[in-house]
Amino acid sequence: MLNIGKAAVLGAGTMGAAIAAHLSNAGIPTLLLDIAPREEDAKDKNQIVKSLFEAAKKLKPAPFMLADNANLISLDNFDEDMPKLKDCDFIIEAVVERLDIKHKIFSQVEKYAKPTAVIASNTSGIPIESIAEPFSDDFKKRFMGIHFFNPPRYMKLVEVIPTKDTDGEIACQRFSAKRNTTARVRVIEVFRHATQHRFPGSLRLCKSSGSLPEMGLRQGDKTNSARAEESRT
Ligand SMILES: NC(=O)c1ccc[n+]([C@@H]2O[C@H](COP(=O)([O-])OP(=O)(O)OC[C@H]3O[C@@H](n4cnc5c(N)ncnc54)[C@H](O)[C@@H]3O)[C@@H](O)[C@H]2O)c1
Question: In angstroms, rounded to a whole number, what is the distance separating the alpha carbons of residues 152 and 169?
Answer without folding.
Answer: 24
